[in-house]
């Protein structure tokens, strides 16, 4: 538990940094149409046969370093994809993409379920069959629902999530169902990834097949132990009959934990997670009807205290999608919530701790449309977080952020381990000027929608992030960790796990080409292409890094030290190119001499 003194210190630190933002309100300009996002949503009505909004995705689907857009719900029911050209301008690439016509499309999540390095799409539909769309590269998709054994998901599908609940290194899938909608009794699903791009439903076995009307499922490492827990946002809460559910992950077994005080009884729709008080633990925010949204602040691993009144973030409108992010790049976290029925959306900014300040109107985000689904990412790569919003009977809204110009940020893209190629479930602790904020890579980050996989942290007027500690999700008993220092601004920094360092081609070994590339990086300005050779994490390539890369090249046996085993392996590979040390594409006397000279 955080004691009273600790809480006071935390709020004081928030206030110190938030004071910067009082006069520096971020500005958001709606620019969807002029940036090429022409997509008028007509589907997703409130109630009955309507699916309460249609999800959106803002993530890098072609692996070119910028975030693309997927949208649903337009006339004709065509799922559409828009490619980002690198400057935040979008080109409609739907024709030839293989994306299908999807009647009653509802929820959307992106994750690399087959471990081939690109993001696939899973979408729920309202009383129609859900779909798994496999990414073949180049913004080309195929319907892989049958091959993945995910047929028969025909209930009122809502928000879904990917995560590795069993810590076996691949992504499992949780699917929300608003059970008992129009008498349909299909319950929530949890699918274990079998490791061969197929899935098995284990929801009933795990006891997570809610009969409640679910709007969103999150898979998130709420207690920071390296595996994902589950939080379920349920509508029509009634004491003893329906409530939000938190399932603690105990070594791959999901156990409901209402002692956490997170089992709310409200009309819960959207749910998001983030560290609002900068205590290193994730807080939970649930949108509700106009009686008031709920903020659950974590005061210890898997223990929460309701503090929405203190934070003044209850609102007075029925809400849907919500996100915790740093809108003004001042280190602390802010909160955005979509609203409907003529009420404006909310942007609450942290300026002097709690209460937070409603800056919706001043920031340009006071949209009175019926807004449902929401995603966030830096679409124009200018260092601040933009918002993509789906409103009904309106074009998509793309709010371009102009954060205070005197504020900077750092952005990282965590490279995954094994089949979890995008590091879903990884945590990063950003330390800036005495404060620490935790961010997580999430697949299924908001109500029915997918936000960017890039982790963003505002740093105010500081020159860099002093320290970033990355914790990869646990695979079996192994959990890789890494520390970076003096993390620079100005670009998205790829962060590689320790096991991958030095291996630019990801072919399982450090070879002469890797060594040559590392040597070249030592004489150039540090940037994304050189990050894989930053062996000591100081965001520079120095002689120490070059020596460490050389040591990995010489470690032919891959057992750590360079010695007799490496020589034996080298001799065993005589005349073959796979263990070449000198770059002449064969193993011969020159390689032996090189190894002995550097023994």
SSE order and pairing:
Elements: H1 4-18, E1 27-30, E2 40-41, E3 56-59, E4 68-71, E5 80-84, E6 90-92, E7 105-111, E8 120-125, E9 131-137, E10 140-143, E11 157-163, E12 172-177, E13 189-193, E14 199-201, H2 203-206, E15 214-220, E16 229-234, E17 245-250, E18 253-256, E19 271-274, E20 283-286, E21 294-300, E22 303-306, H3 308-311, E23 319-325, E24 334-339, E25 346-349, E26 357-358, H4 360-363, E27 371-377, E28 386-391, E29 394-395, E30 397-402, E31 408-414, E32 427-432, E33 435-440, E34 455-460, E35 465-471, E36 481-487, E37 492-495, H5 512-521, H6 543-554, H7 564-572, H8 589-597
Parallel strand pairs: 31-37
Antiparallel strand pairs: 1-30, 2-29, 3-4, 4-5, 5-6, 7-8, 8-9, 9-10, 11-12, 12-13, 13-14, 15-16, 16-17, 17-18, 19-20, 20-21, 21-22, 23-24, 24-25, 25-26, 27-28, 28-30, 31-34, 32-33, 32-35, 35-36
Helix pairs in contact: 5-6, 7-8
Concise structural overview:
The protein is mostly beta strands and 599 residues long. The strands form ten sheets. The protein has a four-stranded antiparallel sheet, with no helix packed on it. A four-stranded antiparallel sheet has the order 3-4-5-6, with no helix packed on it. The relative contact order is 0.12.
């Amino acid at each position: 538990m955080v004691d009273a003194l600790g809480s006071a210190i935390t709020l004081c630190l928030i206030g110190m940094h938030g004071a910067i933002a009082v006069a520096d309100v971020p500005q958001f300009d709606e620019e969807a149409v002029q940036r090429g996002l022409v997509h008028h949503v007509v589907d997703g009505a409130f109630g009955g046969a309507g699916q309460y909004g249609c999800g959106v995705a803002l993530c890098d689907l072609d692996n070119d370093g910028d975030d693309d857009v997927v949208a649903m719900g337009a006339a004709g029911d065509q799922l559409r994809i828009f490619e980002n050209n690198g400057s935040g301008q979008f080109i409609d690439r739907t024709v030839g993409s293989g994306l299908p016509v999807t009647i009653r499309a509802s929820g959307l999540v992106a994750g690399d379920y087959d471990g081939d390095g690109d993001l696939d799409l899973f979408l729920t539909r309202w009383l129609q069959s859900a779909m798994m769309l496999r990414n073949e590269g180049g913004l080309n998709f195929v319907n892989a629902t049958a091959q993945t054994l995910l047929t028969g998901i025909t209930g009122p599908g809502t928000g879904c999530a990917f995560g590795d609940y069993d810590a076996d290194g691949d992504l499992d899938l949780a699917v929300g169902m608003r059970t008992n909608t129009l008498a349909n009794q299909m319950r929530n699903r949890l699918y274990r990834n079998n490791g061969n791009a197929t899935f098995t439903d284990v929801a009933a076995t795990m006891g997570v097949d809610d009969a409640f009307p679910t709007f969103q499922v999150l898979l998130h490492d709420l207690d920071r132990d390296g595996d994902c827990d589950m939080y379920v946002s349920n509508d029509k809460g009634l004491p003893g009959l329906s409530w939000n559910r938190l399932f603690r992950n105990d070594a791959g077994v999901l156990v409901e934990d209402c002692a956490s005080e997170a089992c709310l009884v409200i009309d819960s729709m959207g749910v998001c997670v983030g560290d609002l008080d900068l205590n290193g633990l994730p807080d939970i925010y649930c949108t509700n009807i106009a009686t008031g949204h709920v903020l659950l602040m974590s005061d210890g691993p898997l223990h929460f205290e309701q503090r929405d009144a203190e934070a003044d973030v209850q609102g007075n409108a029925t809400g849907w999608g919500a996100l915790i992010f740093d809108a003004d790049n001042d280190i602390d976290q802010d909160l955005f919530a979509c609203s409907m029925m003529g009420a404006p959306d909310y942007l609450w900014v942290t300026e002097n701790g709690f209460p937070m300040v409603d800056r919706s109107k001043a920031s340009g985000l006071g949209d009175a449309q019926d807004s449902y689904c929401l995603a966030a990412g830096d679409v124009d790569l200018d260092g601040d977080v933009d918002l993509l919003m789906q409103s009904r009977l309106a074009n998509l809204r793309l709010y371009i952020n102009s954060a205070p110009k005197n504020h900077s940020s750092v952005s990282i893209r965590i490279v995954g381990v094994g089949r979890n190629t995008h590091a879903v479930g990884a945590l990063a602790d950003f330390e800036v000027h005495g404060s620490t904020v935790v961010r997580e890579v999430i697949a299924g980050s908001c109500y029915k929608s997918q936000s960017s996989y890039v982790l963003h942290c505002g740093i105010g007027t500081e020159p860099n992030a002093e320290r970033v500690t990355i914790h990869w999700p646990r695979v079996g008993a192994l959990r890789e960790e890494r520390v970076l220092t003096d993390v620079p601004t100005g670009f998205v920094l790829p962060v590689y796990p320790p096991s991958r360092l030095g291996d630019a081609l990801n072919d399982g070994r450090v070879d002469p080409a890797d060594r040559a590339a590392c040597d070249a990086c030592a004489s150039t300005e540090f940037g994304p292409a050189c990050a894989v050779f930053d062996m000591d994490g100081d965001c520079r390539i120095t002689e120490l890094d070059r020596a460490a890369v050389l040591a990995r090249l010489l470690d032919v046996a891959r057992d750590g030290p360079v010695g007799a085993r490496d020589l034996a392996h080298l001799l065993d590979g005589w005349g073959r190119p796979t263990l070449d040390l000198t770059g002449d594409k064969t193993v011969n006397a020159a390689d032996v001499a090189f190894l002995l000279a550097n023994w």
